[in-house]
Specification:
The complex is a heterodimer of chains A (267) and B (248). Chain A has 267 residues and is mainly alpha-helical. Helices cover 84% and strands 0% of the residues of chain A. Chain A has one domain: ABC transporter involved in vitamin B12 uptake, BtuC (Orthogonal Bundle). In chain A, helix 1 packs antiparallel against helix 8 and helix 3 crosses helix 8. The longest helix of chain A has 30 residues. Chain B has 248 residues and is an alpha/beta fold. The chains are: A mainly alpha (267), B alpha/beta (248). The interface between A and B is medium-sized, with 25 and 25 residues.
Protein backbone atom coordinates (compact mmCIF):
# COMPACT_ATOMS: atom_id res chain seq x y z
CA UNK A 1 0.00 0.00 0.00
CA UNK A 2 2.88 2.33 0.85
CA UNK A 3 4.17 1.75 -2.66
CA UNK A 4 1.52 4.04 -4.00
CA UNK A 5 2.87 7.60 -4.01
CA UNK A 6 -0.59 8.99 -3.45
CA UNK A 7 -1.17 6.96 -0.29
CA UNK A 8 2.23 8.05 0.98
CA UNK A 9 1.41 11.67 0.27
CA UNK A 10 -1.94 11.35 2.00
CA UNK A 11 -0.43 9.77 5.08
CA UNK A 12 2.31 12.40 5.20
CA UNK A 13 -0.20 15.21 4.80
CA UNK A 14 -2.47 13.89 7.52
CA UNK A 15 0.47 13.44 9.88
CA UNK A 16 1.50 17.03 9.28
CA UNK A 17 -2.03 18.44 9.59
CA UNK A 18 -2.58 16.84 12.98
CA UNK A 19 0.48 18.67 14.31
CA UNK A 20 0.03 22.00 12.53
CA UNK A 21 -3.49 22.23 13.99
CA UNK A 22 -2.55 22.93 17.62
CA UNK A 23 0.75 24.66 16.80
CA UNK A 24 -1.08 26.93 14.37
CA UNK A 25 -3.46 28.02 17.13
CA UNK A 26 -0.51 29.19 19.18
CA UNK A 27 0.99 30.90 16.12
CA UNK A 28 -2.21 32.91 15.81
CA UNK A 29 -2.65 33.56 19.52
CA UNK A 30 0.94 34.66 20.01
CA UNK A 31 1.09 36.58 16.71
CA UNK A 32 3.91 34.49 15.37
CA UNK A 33 2.91 34.07 11.73
CA UNK A 34 5.84 36.11 10.49
CA UNK A 35 8.14 34.26 12.85
CA UNK A 36 6.94 31.02 11.28
CA UNK A 37 7.73 32.47 7.86
CA UNK A 38 11.23 33.36 8.96
CA UNK A 39 11.93 29.86 10.21
CA UNK A 40 10.48 28.37 7.03
CA UNK A 41 12.58 30.58 4.77
CA UNK A 42 15.69 29.62 6.64
CA UNK A 43 14.79 26.00 5.94
CA UNK A 44 16.17 26.38 2.41
CA UNK A 45 19.60 26.81 3.92
CA UNK A 46 18.98 23.61 5.86
CA UNK A 47 18.05 21.77 2.68
CA UNK A 48 21.20 22.85 0.85
CA UNK A 49 23.26 21.83 3.85
CA UNK A 50 21.60 18.42 3.79
CA UNK A 51 22.47 17.96 0.13
CA UNK A 52 26.09 19.05 0.42
CA UNK A 53 26.80 16.95 3.49
CA UNK A 54 24.53 14.06 2.49
CA UNK A 55 22.51 14.51 5.61
CA UNK A 56 18.86 13.85 6.36
CA UNK A 57 16.85 16.85 5.13
CA UNK A 58 14.38 17.02 8.01
CA UNK A 59 17.13 16.84 10.57
CA UNK A 60 19.29 19.51 8.99
CA UNK A 61 16.30 21.83 8.48
CA UNK A 62 15.48 21.37 12.15
CA UNK A 63 19.01 22.32 13.17
CA UNK A 64 19.19 25.40 10.91
CA UNK A 65 15.71 26.63 11.89
CA UNK A 66 16.50 26.26 15.58
CA UNK A 67 19.75 28.13 14.99
CA UNK A 68 17.94 30.97 13.23
CA UNK A 69 15.45 31.15 16.11
CA UNK A 70 18.35 31.39 18.54
CA UNK A 71 20.01 34.15 16.50
CA UNK A 72 16.71 36.01 16.42
CA UNK A 73 16.39 35.88 20.21
CA UNK A 74 19.95 37.20 20.58
CA UNK A 75 19.37 39.98 18.03
CA UNK A 76 16.21 41.01 19.87
CA UNK A 77 18.22 41.44 23.02
CA UNK A 78 21.14 43.28 21.44
CA UNK A 79 19.64 45.65 18.88
CA UNK A 80 16.92 48.24 18.94
CA UNK A 81 15.43 47.21 15.60
CA UNK A 82 11.73 46.40 15.87
CA UNK A 83 10.76 42.73 15.83
CA UNK A 84 9.24 42.69 12.35
CA UNK A 85 12.34 44.28 10.80
CA UNK A 86 14.55 41.66 12.45
CA UNK A 87 12.28 38.88 11.21
CA UNK A 88 12.36 40.29 7.68
CA UNK A 89 16.10 40.60 7.82
CA UNK A 90 16.57 36.99 8.85
CA UNK A 91 13.85 35.57 6.60
CA UNK A 92 15.04 37.12 3.38
CA UNK A 93 18.74 36.93 4.01
CA UNK A 94 18.58 33.24 4.89
CA UNK A 95 16.42 32.59 1.82
CA UNK A 96 18.86 34.53 -0.35
CA UNK A 97 21.92 32.80 1.11
CA UNK A 98 20.22 29.47 0.58
CA UNK A 99 19.55 30.26 -3.10
CA UNK A 100 23.11 31.53 -3.58
CA UNK A 101 24.52 28.33 -2.11
CA UNK A 102 22.29 26.32 -4.47
CA UNK A 103 23.85 28.26 -7.34
CA UNK A 104 27.26 27.00 -6.31
CA UNK A 105 26.14 23.40 -6.08
CA UNK A 106 26.08 22.86 -9.82
CA UNK A 107 26.76 19.15 -9.41
CA UNK A 108 23.37 18.56 -7.76
CA UNK A 109 20.10 18.93 -9.59
CA UNK A 110 17.66 20.80 -7.39
CA UNK A 111 13.93 20.76 -7.77
CA UNK A 112 13.51 24.34 -6.60
CA UNK A 113 9.79 24.41 -7.27
CA UNK A 114 9.41 21.30 -5.16
CA UNK A 115 11.31 22.90 -2.33
CA UNK A 116 9.30 26.09 -2.44
CA UNK A 117 5.85 24.61 -2.98
CA UNK A 118 6.05 20.98 -1.93
CA UNK A 119 6.16 17.81 -3.96
CA UNK A 120 3.98 14.79 -3.28
CA UNK A 121 6.06 12.55 -5.51
CA UNK A 122 9.06 13.15 -3.31
CA UNK A 123 7.53 11.70 -0.14
CA UNK A 124 9.40 8.50 0.72
CA UNK A 125 8.76 5.85 3.35
CA UNK A 126 11.57 7.42 5.37
CA UNK A 127 9.79 10.76 5.28
CA UNK A 128 6.64 9.07 6.53
CA UNK A 129 8.59 7.61 9.42
CA UNK A 130 9.99 11.02 10.35
CA UNK A 131 6.52 12.59 10.20
CA UNK A 132 4.79 9.88 12.19
CA UNK A 133 7.49 9.72 14.86
CA UNK A 134 8.36 13.42 14.99
CA UNK A 135 4.76 14.58 14.81
CA UNK A 136 3.40 12.73 17.86
CA UNK A 137 6.57 13.71 19.72
CA UNK A 138 5.90 17.39 19.01
CA UNK A 139 2.29 16.96 20.16
CA UNK A 140 3.38 15.23 23.36
CA UNK A 141 5.81 17.99 24.25
CA UNK A 142 3.19 20.62 23.42
CA UNK A 143 0.76 18.91 25.75
CA UNK A 144 3.37 18.94 28.51
CA UNK A 145 4.03 22.68 28.17
CA UNK A 146 0.40 23.57 27.41
CA UNK A 147 -0.39 25.15 30.77
CA UNK A 148 2.56 27.57 31.06
CA UNK A 149 2.52 28.33 27.33
CA UNK A 150 -1.18 29.05 27.23
CA UNK A 151 -1.19 31.03 30.47
CA UNK A 152 1.67 33.21 29.27
CA UNK A 153 -0.09 33.69 25.95
CA UNK A 154 -3.01 35.16 27.85
CA UNK A 155 -0.80 37.20 30.16
CA UNK A 156 2.92 36.76 30.59
CA UNK A 157 3.17 38.43 33.98
CA UNK A 158 0.31 36.42 35.42
CA UNK A 159 2.01 33.18 34.40
CA UNK A 160 5.35 34.34 35.75
CA UNK A 161 3.86 35.59 39.03
CA UNK A 162 2.03 32.35 39.66
CA UNK A 163 5.15 30.29 39.13
CA UNK A 164 4.66 28.71 35.70
CA UNK A 165 8.03 29.51 34.12
CA UNK A 166 6.79 30.98 30.82
CA UNK A 167 10.29 31.64 29.44
CA UNK A 168 11.12 27.96 29.40
CA UNK A 169 7.78 27.15 27.73
CA UNK A 170 8.46 29.78 25.07
CA UNK A 171 11.92 28.39 24.33
CA UNK A 172 10.55 24.86 24.01
CA UNK A 173 7.75 26.11 21.76
CA UNK A 174 10.32 27.70 19.45
CA UNK A 175 12.03 24.35 19.09
CA UNK A 176 8.67 22.72 18.32
CA UNK A 177 8.12 25.29 15.57
CA UNK A 178 11.47 24.38 14.03
CA UNK A 179 10.40 20.74 14.33
CA UNK A 180 7.12 21.12 12.48
CA UNK A 181 8.81 23.05 9.68
CA UNK A 182 11.40 20.32 9.37
CA UNK A 183 8.86 17.53 9.03
CA UNK A 184 6.40 19.37 6.79
CA UNK A 185 8.77 20.97 4.29
CA UNK A 186 8.35 18.20 1.73
CA UNK A 187 4.57 18.31 1.87
CA UNK A 188 3.76 21.97 1.45
CA UNK A 189 7.11 23.54 0.63
CA UNK A 190 8.86 26.25 2.54
CA UNK A 191 6.90 29.19 1.15
CA UNK A 192 3.57 27.73 2.22
CA UNK A 193 4.26 26.14 5.60
CA UNK A 194 3.03 29.18 7.49
CA UNK A 195 -0.19 28.97 5.51
CA UNK A 196 -0.66 25.41 6.72
CA UNK A 197 -0.13 26.66 10.26
CA UNK A 198 -2.37 29.69 10.29
CA UNK A 199 -5.20 29.14 7.79
CA UNK A 200 -6.83 26.10 9.46
CA UNK A 201 -6.34 27.77 12.86
CA UNK A 202 -7.90 31.01 11.61
CA UNK A 203 -10.79 28.98 10.21
CA UNK A 204 -11.16 27.27 13.58
CA UNK A 205 -11.25 30.60 15.42
CA UNK A 206 -14.32 31.61 13.46
CA UNK A 207 -16.31 28.62 14.66
CA UNK A 208 -15.11 27.99 18.20
CA UNK A 209 -15.69 29.52 21.61
CA UNK A 210 -12.97 27.88 23.67
CA UNK A 211 -9.26 27.20 23.16
CA UNK A 212 -9.73 23.42 23.24
CA UNK A 213 -12.43 23.55 20.58
CA UNK A 214 -10.27 25.81 18.44
CA UNK A 215 -7.44 23.25 18.56
CA UNK A 216 -9.77 20.40 17.60
CA UNK A 217 -11.41 22.32 14.73
CA UNK A 218 -7.99 23.45 13.57
CA UNK A 219 -6.85 19.82 13.30
CA UNK A 220 -10.06 18.84 11.50
CA UNK A 221 -9.65 21.80 9.15
CA UNK A 222 -6.07 20.82 8.38
CA UNK A 223 -6.99 17.20 7.74
CA UNK A 224 -9.84 18.19 5.42
CA UNK A 225 -7.55 20.62 3.58
CA UNK A 226 -4.99 17.88 2.98
CA UNK A 227 -7.58 15.41 1.69
CA UNK A 228 -9.34 17.99 -0.46
CA UNK A 229 -6.07 19.50 -1.68
CA UNK A 230 -4.35 16.26 -2.55
CA UNK A 231 -7.33 14.81 -4.42
CA UNK A 232 -7.74 17.97 -6.43
CA UNK A 233 -4.02 18.13 -7.15
CA UNK A 234 -4.31 14.61 -8.55
CA UNK A 235 -7.42 15.55 -10.50
CA UNK A 236 -6.14 18.82 -11.99
CA UNK A 237 -2.44 17.97 -12.00
CA UNK A 238 -1.46 20.91 -9.78
CA UNK A 239 1.31 21.13 -7.17
CA UNK A 240 0.40 19.55 -3.87
CA UNK A 241 1.36 22.39 -1.53
CA UNK A 242 -0.62 25.17 -3.22
CA UNK A 243 -3.60 22.85 -3.68
CA UNK A 244 -3.68 22.05 0.06
CA UNK A 245 -3.39 25.71 1.01
CA UNK A 246 -6.08 26.67 -1.49
CA UNK A 247 -8.35 24.03 0.04
CA UNK A 248 -7.64 25.48 3.48
CA UNK A 249 -8.53 28.92 2.20
CA UNK A 250 -11.78 27.52 0.85
CA UNK A 251 -12.65 26.15 4.30
CA UNK A 252 -11.71 29.48 5.87
CA UNK A 253 -14.11 31.32 3.57
CA UNK A 254 -16.86 28.86 4.51
CA UNK A 255 -16.18 29.58 8.20
CA UNK A 256 -16.65 33.30 7.58
CA UNK A 257 -20.32 32.59 6.92
CA UNK A 258 -20.58 31.40 10.50
CA UNK A 259 -18.95 34.50 11.91
CA UNK A 260 -21.24 36.80 9.93
CA UNK A 261 -24.17 35.02 11.48
CA UNK A 262 -22.88 35.42 15.01
CA UNK A 263 -22.16 39.11 14.48
CA UNK A 264 -25.72 39.52 13.24
CA UNK A 265 -27.03 37.73 16.31
CA UNK A 266 -25.08 40.05 18.55
CA UNK A 267 -26.42 43.23 17.01
CA UNK B 1 6.35 40.21 67.16
CA UNK B 2 5.54 37.55 64.63
CA UNK B 3 7.91 34.73 64.01
CA UNK B 4 9.68 34.24 60.73
CA UNK B 5 7.32 31.46 59.75
CA UNK B 6 4.58 33.95 59.09
CA UNK B 7 6.56 35.90 56.55
CA UNK B 8 5.57 35.25 52.94
CA UNK B 9 7.62 37.84 51.08
CA UNK B 10 10.34 40.16 52.22
CA UNK B 11 11.79 43.07 50.25
CA UNK B 12 15.07 44.57 51.41
CA UNK B 13 16.10 47.86 49.82
CA UNK B 14 14.60 46.57 46.58
CA UNK B 15 14.56 48.68 43.45
CA UNK B 16 14.11 48.30 39.71
CA UNK B 17 15.88 50.27 37.03
CA UNK B 18 15.12 50.11 33.32
CA UNK B 19 16.87 52.11 30.59
CA UNK B 20 18.79 54.08 33.23
CA UNK B 21 15.58 55.17 34.87
CA UNK B 22 14.67 54.06 38.37
CA UNK B 23 11.05 53.04 38.53
CA UNK B 24 11.30 52.51 42.25
CA UNK B 25 14.16 52.40 44.69
CA UNK B 26 14.96 51.34 48.21
CA UNK B 27 11.72 49.58 49.11
CA UNK B 28 11.73 47.57 52.31
CA UNK B 29 8.59 45.78 53.34
CA UNK B 30 7.31 42.41 54.36
CA UNK B 31 4.03 40.61 53.88
CA UNK B 32 2.85 38.22 56.56
CA UNK B 33 0.13 35.59 56.71
CA UNK B 34 -3.26 37.05 57.49
CA UNK B 35 -2.09 40.64 57.08
CA UNK B 36 -2.97 43.24 54.48
CA UNK B 37 -0.23 45.56 53.29
CA UNK B 38 -1.37 48.42 51.11
CA UNK B 39 0.70 50.46 48.70
CA UNK B 40 -0.46 54.00 48.06
CA UNK B 41 1.11 56.78 46.08
CA UNK B 42 0.54 59.01 43.06
CA UNK B 43 0.62 57.75 39.45
CA UNK B 44 4.05 56.59 38.41
CA UNK B 45 5.24 56.28 41.99
CA UNK B 46 6.25 52.64 41.53
CA UNK B 47 3.36 50.79 43.14
CA UNK B 48 2.87 48.22 40.39
CA UNK B 49 6.62 47.90 39.98
CA UNK B 50 6.97 47.13 43.68
CA UNK B 51 4.27 44.47 43.36
CA UNK B 52 6.06 42.93 40.38
CA UNK B 53 9.33 42.88 42.30
CA UNK B 54 7.60 41.08 45.15
CA UNK B 55 6.09 38.59 42.70
CA UNK B 56 9.41 37.85 41.04
CA UNK B 57 8.28 39.10 37.63
CA UNK B 58 11.23 41.48 37.47
CA UNK B 59 14.41 39.54 37.87
CA UNK B 60 17.28 41.97 37.45
CA UNK B 61 16.54 43.99 40.51
CA UNK B 62 18.51 45.97 42.99
CA UNK B 63 18.44 44.83 46.61
CA UNK B 64 16.90 41.59 47.79
CA UNK B 65 13.62 39.72 47.57
CA UNK B 66 12.92 36.66 49.61
CA UNK B 67 9.81 34.73 48.68
CA UNK B 68 8.66 31.91 50.92
CA UNK B 69 5.59 30.73 49.04
CA UNK B 70 4.67 29.50 45.60
CA UNK B 71 0.93 29.60 46.10
CA UNK B 72 0.32 33.01 44.59
CA UNK B 73 -2.80 34.68 43.25
CA UNK B 74 -2.26 37.80 41.15
CA UNK B 75 -4.66 40.39 39.81
CA UNK B 76 -2.64 42.54 37.39
CA UNK B 77 -3.47 46.17 36.85
CA UNK B 78 -4.34 45.65 33.24
CA UNK B 79 -4.80 42.63 31.07
CA UNK B 80 -6.09 42.57 27.55
CA UNK B 81 -7.58 39.53 25.90
CA UNK B 82 -7.08 39.41 22.18
CA UNK B 83 -10.01 38.52 19.94
CA UNK B 84 -7.95 35.70 18.46
CA UNK B 85 -8.19 33.87 21.81
CA UNK B 86 -11.57 32.29 22.31
CA UNK B 87 -11.70 32.27 26.09
CA UNK B 88 -14.72 31.86 28.32
CA UNK B 89 -14.77 32.81 31.98
CA UNK B 90 -14.75 29.13 32.85
CA UNK B 91 -11.58 28.49 30.79
CA UNK B 92 -9.92 31.53 32.31
CA UNK B 93 -10.50 30.29 35.86
CA UNK B 94 -8.22 27.30 35.32
CA UNK B 95 -5.53 29.28 33.53
CA UNK B 96 -2.67 28.58 35.91
CA UNK B 97 -4.04 25.73 37.98
CA UNK B 98 -6.57 22.97 37.50
CA UNK B 99 -9.50 23.44 39.83
CA UNK B 100 -12.60 21.42 40.52
CA UNK B 101 -16.01 22.72 39.61
CA UNK B 102 -17.00 23.54 43.19
CA UNK B 103 -14.00 25.80 43.76
CA UNK B 104 -14.64 27.63 40.50
CA UNK B 105 -18.32 28.12 41.26
CA UNK B 106 -17.62 29.21 44.82
CA UNK B 107 -15.10 31.86 43.78
CA UNK B 108 -17.32 33.19 41.00
CA UNK B 109 -20.27 33.35 43.41
CA UNK B 110 -18.21 35.22 46.00
CA UNK B 111 -17.37 37.98 43.52
CA UNK B 112 -20.90 37.95 42.14
CA UNK B 113 -20.25 36.81 38.58
CA UNK B 114 -21.37 33.17 38.60
CA UNK B 115 -23.98 34.00 35.94
CA UNK B 116 -21.18 34.94 33.52
CA UNK B 117 -19.47 31.56 33.70
CA UNK B 118 -20.05 30.60 30.07
CA UNK B 119 -19.62 34.06 28.64
CA UNK B 120 -16.73 35.03 26.45
CA UNK B 121 -14.13 37.11 28.29
CA UNK B 122 -14.09 39.65 25.49
CA UNK B 123 -17.80 40.33 25.99
CA UNK B 124 -17.52 41.35 29.65
CA UNK B 125 -17.67 44.92 30.86
CA UNK B 126 -14.69 46.39 32.70
CA UNK B 127 -16.24 45.88 36.12
CA UNK B 128 -17.39 42.35 35.34
CA UNK B 129 -13.94 41.45 34.06
CA UNK B 130 -12.36 42.82 37.23
CA UNK B 131 -14.63 40.58 39.31
CA UNK B 132 -13.61 37.59 37.23
CA UNK B 133 -9.94 38.45 37.70
CA UNK B 134 -10.43 38.58 41.45
CA UNK B 135 -12.40 35.33 41.43
CA UNK B 136 -9.61 33.59 39.53
CA UNK B 137 -6.97 34.83 41.95
CA UNK B 138 -8.84 33.66 45.05
CA UNK B 139 -10.17 30.40 43.63
CA UNK B 140 -6.80 28.68 43.94
CA UNK B 141 -6.73 29.51 47.66
CA UNK B 142 -3.36 31.21 47.57
CA UNK B 143 -1.08 31.98 50.46
CA UNK B 144 -0.12 35.28 48.92
CA UNK B 145 -2.57 37.48 47.08
CA UNK B 146 -1.31 40.47 45.11
CA UNK B 147 -4.08 42.79 44.02
CA UNK B 148 -3.17 45.68 41.74
CA UNK B 149 -6.18 47.99 41.86
CA UNK B 150 -8.60 45.09 42.02
CA UNK B 151 -11.81 47.11 41.95
CA UNK B 152 -11.13 49.53 39.10
CA UNK B 153 -14.29 50.05 37.09
CA UNK B 154 -16.48 48.28 39.63
CA UNK B 155 -19.67 50.09 40.64
CA UNK B 156 -19.84 51.86 44.00
CA UNK B 157 -21.76 49.25 45.99
CA UNK B 158 -19.76 46.49 44.37
CA UNK B 159 -16.54 48.18 45.36
CA UNK B 160 -17.45 48.16 49.04
CA UNK B 161 -18.59 44.55 48.84
CA UNK B 162 -15.39 43.46 47.11
CA UNK B 163 -13.19 45.17 49.67
CA UNK B 164 -15.15 43.42 52.40
CA UNK B 165 -14.61 40.18 50.53
CA UNK B 166 -10.87 40.81 50.33
CA UNK B 167 -10.75 41.40 54.07
CA UNK B 168 -12.77 38.23 54.65
CA UNK B 169 -10.48 36.18 52.43
CA UNK B 170 -7.45 37.40 54.28
CA UNK B 171 -9.02 36.21 57.54
CA UNK B 172 -10.45 32.93 56.27
CA UNK B 173 -7.51 31.70 54.22
CA UNK B 174 -5.02 33.38 56.51
CA UNK B 175 -3.27 34.62 53.39
CA UNK B 176 -1.10 37.68 53.10
CA UNK B 177 -2.36 40.40 50.80
CA UNK B 178 -0.44 43.07 48.97
CA UNK B 179 -3.02 45.61 47.87
CA UNK B 180 -2.57 48.56 45.57
CA UNK B 181 -5.35 51.04 45.83
CA UNK B 182 -6.22 54.61 45.07
CA UNK B 183 -9.13 54.60 47.41
CA UNK B 184 -7.81 56.04 50.62
CA UNK B 185 -11.08 55.41 52.46
CA UNK B 186 -10.90 51.66 52.06
CA UNK B 187 -7.19 51.54 52.54
CA UNK B 188 -7.49 52.98 55.94
CA UNK B 189 -10.37 50.88 57.14
CA UNK B 190 -9.02 47.43 56.40
CA UNK B 191 -5.26 47.65 56.13
CA UNK B 192 -2.75 46.54 58.71
CA UNK B 193 0.21 48.29 57.19
CA UNK B 194 0.44 51.14 54.71
CA UNK B 195 3.42 51.91 52.53
CA UNK B 196 3.32 55.28 50.86
CA UNK B 197 5.45 55.36 47.72
CA UNK B 198 6.77 58.12 45.54
CA UNK B 199 9.64 56.52 43.69
CA UNK B 200 10.90 55.51 47.10
CA UNK B 201 9.23 54.77 50.41
CA UNK B 202 7.86 58.08 51.57
CA UNK B 203 6.59 56.77 54.84
CA UNK B 204 5.10 53.58 56.15
CA UNK B 205 3.38 52.20 59.20
CA UNK B 206 -0.14 51.72 60.47
CA UNK B 207 -2.80 53.81 58.70
CA UNK B 208 -2.91 56.21 61.64
CA UNK B 209 0.85 56.71 61.68
CA UNK B 210 0.96 57.37 57.97
CA UNK B 211 -1.88 59.86 58.17
CA UNK B 212 0.03 61.96 60.65
CA UNK B 213 3.17 61.93 58.56
CA UNK B 214 4.07 65.25 56.98
CA UNK B 215 5.40 63.72 53.78
CA UNK B 216 2.08 61.95 53.31
CA UNK B 217 0.26 65.24 53.77
CA UNK B 218 2.54 66.91 51.26
CA UNK B 219 1.85 64.15 48.75
CA UNK B 220 -1.88 63.76 49.10
CA UNK B 221 -2.90 67.05 50.66
CA UNK B 222 -4.53 67.98 53.93
CA UNK B 223 -7.87 66.52 52.90
CA UNK B 224 -6.48 63.04 52.51
CA UNK B 225 -5.08 63.29 55.94
CA UNK B 226 -8.51 64.10 57.30
CA UNK B 227 -9.96 60.96 55.75
CA UNK B 228 -7.72 59.03 58.03
CA UNK B 229 -8.45 60.94 61.15
CA UNK B 230 -12.10 60.46 60.43
CA UNK B 231 -11.53 56.74 60.47
CA UNK B 232 -9.56 57.02 63.63
CA UNK B 233 -12.49 58.23 65.70
CA UNK B 234 -15.39 57.42 63.54
CA UNK B 235 -17.26 55.81 66.39
CA UNK B 236 -17.11 58.54 69.00
CA UNK B 237 -19.33 61.09 67.26
CA UNK B 238 -21.77 61.49 64.44
CA UNK B 239 -22.35 64.35 62.01
CA UNK B 240 -25.96 65.43 61.90
CA UNK B 241 -27.57 66.71 58.77
CA UNK B 242 -27.36 70.26 60.13
CA UNK B 243 -23.62 69.97 60.31
CA UNK B 244 -23.47 69.68 64.07
CA UNK B 245 -21.27 67.17 65.76
CA UNK B 246 -23.02 64.98 68.22
CA UNK B 247 -21.19 62.82 70.73
CA UNK B 248 -22.27 59.19 70.84
Amino acid sequence: MLDDFFIRALLAGLGVAIVTGPLGCFVIWRRLSYFGDTLAHSALLGVTLAYTMEFNIAFSVFIISSLIALILIQLQKRTNLPGDALLGLLAHSSLAVGLVVIGFLTFIRFDIMGLLFGDILAVTVDDLLIIWIGGPLILLVLKLIWKPLFASTVNYELAEAEGLNPDRAKAIFTVLMAGIIAISIKMVGLLLITGMLIIPAAMARNISNSPQKMVVYSIIGGVLSVILGLFSSLEFNTSSGPSIIAAALFLFILSLLNIKQSIKLKN
Amino acid sequence: MSTNQNILVKLKQAGFCINDKWLVKGVTLQIEKGKIVTLIGPNGSGKSTTAKIALGIYKKIDGEVEKYTNKVGYVPQKISIDWTLPLRVNDFMTLTENLNKEDINEALSLTGVIHLKDKNLGDLSGGEFQRVLLARAISKKPELLVLDEPVQGVDFTGEIALYELIKKISDELNCGILLISHDLHTVMSATDHVVCLNGHVCCSGTPIDVAKNNEYKALFGEQASQILTRYEHRHDHIHTSEGEIKKN
